[in-house]
Specification:
The complex is a heterodimer of chains A (128) and B (379).
Chain A (H helix, E strand, L loop, with lengths): L8 E2 L4 E6 L2 E6 L1 H7 L2 E5 L6 E2 L4 E7 L3 E5 L4 E6 L1 H5 L3 H4 L8 E5 L11 H7 L4
Antiparallel strand pairs in A: 1-2, 2-3, 3-9, 4-6, 5-8, 6-7, 8-9
Chain B lengths: L6 H6 L3 E5 L2 E6 L3 H10 L1 E5 L4 E6 L3 H8 L11 E8 L5 E11 L2 E6 L4 H13 L8 E4 L4 E7 L7 H4 L6 E2 L13 E6 L2 E6 L8 E7 L3 H12 L4 E3 L2 H10 L34 H10 L4 E7 L11 E4 L6 E10 L6 E7 L9 E6 L2 E8 L9
Parallel strand pairs in B: 3-14
Antiparallel strand pairs in B: 1-2, 3-9, 4-7, 4-8, 5-6, 6-7, 9-13, 10-11, 11-12, 12-13, 15-18, 15-20, 16-17, 16-19, 17-18, 19-20
Helix pairs in contact in B: 2-7
Classes of the chains: A alpha+beta (128), B alpha+beta (379).
Chain lengths: 128, 379
């Protein structure tokens, strides 16, 4: 049963967003890490890069596949998680905590309303 | 997609099923890394029923096979097998396979799943033109036969109990674990006869069991039950690939294809130029003498990077750096924790220790050429 925390918002492409003020922290969901199994590499965007909602801005690799991660929101990359680059297994063990990917200074907070609620994301992944 | 006799077992075990060479096969059950490490440290069991089994019998079989395959079958005693390659006239590889002499005049070939049709067509055509063809019976037993592989240092702890009693054919031994590497023997189990060889594709000790399709599920279940207390885990094609890449075993379609010779692939040891005439001999003899036009090298990434993958470009370094080849197989090595792979480069660029770069998503990451195998068991 995938964990879908109730205090987050979600993208259809399996990213989660935690908002604090006008900064959004982004990672991939428990469902996504479970599908990937062992994450062996994470490539993060550069701090300062401007991203638009829907842009591919990170890559997460398992043994067998490389997968693009899409930014759920627009803004400037404010910080990236060096710990997950050093230890990609954090994506599997703590996808909502130490396995976070990057933070975005929001340029258009209204975009958050277009993201999925926990219930909507749960429905998308089949409530399992 | 075709399904092996173990399809239901894979579903029960939660296998993630994918398409491979026309077959629906499990790529993993829990995780590739887990399954890979289980094989290295304890034991893993693989469904290899998608592979092909071809039988040749009769007094003419040895001569026919010896002129069709690269290695020298005359070296084989009954109950012994060898790795060998089947080449066309220009020396390019049609398939790599294992050939077993089961009894004096009976041979079993284990061929790649993706090459069953091509191999059978080739063998039938060659046999039709073979002078002694009336002395050879050919049977494609692939559909009626399945196989499993059990691999890992702890397999010896439980496999004898699954096939009790002495062998009844091939190499005559009191128990399965008395077989030496590359030896094969026939065992009876309930009403079935099956063949067990001490061979594998992982670099670990292990056995491969070839049995009639209808008895396979019972064999799989019994091995799984007997092995679980010893750490046995079901392992899928993902782990099969990482295991064989670590020890630099070629995979047809990657390191081997019709445009590549065994000499170029570094398996010239299995080409017996002195045994007499065989298909492709003259080209291979010339290559062995003059040197091949390309060479298969192994490499390791030297910095943290994304895993190298097939078709990524291999670059030389320094002034005049250029693309010199392509990755044939590449992966993150579960045993070594670093990216590894194999690829073809010009012979003058093939020396171990040479720094190279692998182009990954437009950026070049540092690597170094290393001797094969990339992973060696600690002594």
């Amino acid at each position: 049963m995938a964990n879908v925390p109730s205090d987050l918002k979600y993208a259809k492409s399996h990213e989660w967003v935690r908002v604090s003020g006008n900064v959004a922290t982004v990672g991939i969901t428990d469902h996504a890490q479970h599908e990937l199994t062992d994450v062996v590499f994470v490539e993060l965007p550069e701090v300062g890069r401007q991203v638009k909602a829907g842009d591919a801005c990170a890559v997460v690799e398992s043994v067998k596949t490389a997968n693009d991660i899409y930014s759920p929101v627009s803004g400037e990359i404010a910080e990236v998680n060096k710990a997950v680059v050093a230890d990609p297994a954090l994506v599997n063990s703590a996808p909502y905590a130490d396995g976070w990917f990057y933070q975005v200074k929001l340029s258009n907070p209204a975009e958050l309303t277009a993201l999925l609620s926990p219930e909507q994301y749960q429905a998308q992944i089949g409530g399992a | 997609m075709k399904r092996t006799p173990l399809y239901a077992a894979h579903q029960r075990l939660g296998g993630k099923l994918i398409e491979f060479g026309g077959w629906e096969m499990p790529v993993q059950y829990t995780s590739i890394t887990d399954e890979h490490l289980a094989v290295r440290n304890a034991a893993g069991i693989f469904d290899i029923s998608h592979m092909g089994e071809v039988i040749l019998r009769g007094p003419g079989a040895e001569a026919f096979l010896n002129q069709t395959l690269s290695n020298d079958l005359r070296k084989l005693a009954p109950g012994q097998g060898q790795y060998t390659l089947m080449c066309h006239e220009r020396g390019g590889v049609l398939d790599d396979l294992y050939a077993y002499r089961l009894t004096t005049n009976e041979y079993l070939l284990i061929i790649n799943a993706s090459r069953i049709e091509a191999d059978v067509a080739w063998l039938e055509a060659q046999l039709a033109a073979f002078a002694g063809r009336n002395e050879v019976k050919f049977l494609n037993a692939s559909d009626a036969t399945g196989a499993v592989a059990v691999q890992g240092p702890r397999v010896v702890e439980f496999i004898d109990a699954c096939f009790p009693g002495a062998s009844t054919g091939g190499n005559l031994v009191a128990r399965v674990t008395d077989l030496k590497k590359n030896q094969v023997a026939r065992f009876s189990r309930a009403e079935d006869t099956l063949w067990v060889s001490r061979t594998g594709y992982t670099g670990e000790d292990g056995f491969e069991i070839v049995a009639p399709s209808q008895s396979l599920e019972a064999i799989w279940n019994q091995l799984l039950a007997a092995g679980q207390p010893h750490g046995l885990k079901p392992a899928g094609l993902g782990a099969r690939d990482t295991l064989r890449t670590e020890v630099c075993y070629p995979l047809y379609g990657h390191e081997l294809d019709e445009n590549t010779t065994p000499i170029e692939a570094g398996v010239g040891f299995f080409v017996a130029l002195d045994k007499g005439e065989f298909i492709g001999r003259s080209v291979l003899a010339e290559q062995k003498a003059k040197g091949p036009g390309k060479k298969l090298v192994a490499f390791k990434m030297t910095d943290r990077s994304a895993p190298p993958r097939p078709h990524y470009a291999i670059w030389s370094t320094g002034p005049g750096a250029a693309k010199i080849g392509e990755v044939a197989s590449g992966t993150q090595s579960p045993s070594l924790g670093v990216g590894i792979g194999m690829g073809y480069v010009p012979p003058e660029s093939a020396k171990s220790g040479t720094p190279v770069e692998i182009e990954i998503r437009g950026k070049r990451a540092p690597a170094v050429l290393v001797p094969k195998p990339i992973y060696r068991k600690p002594d």
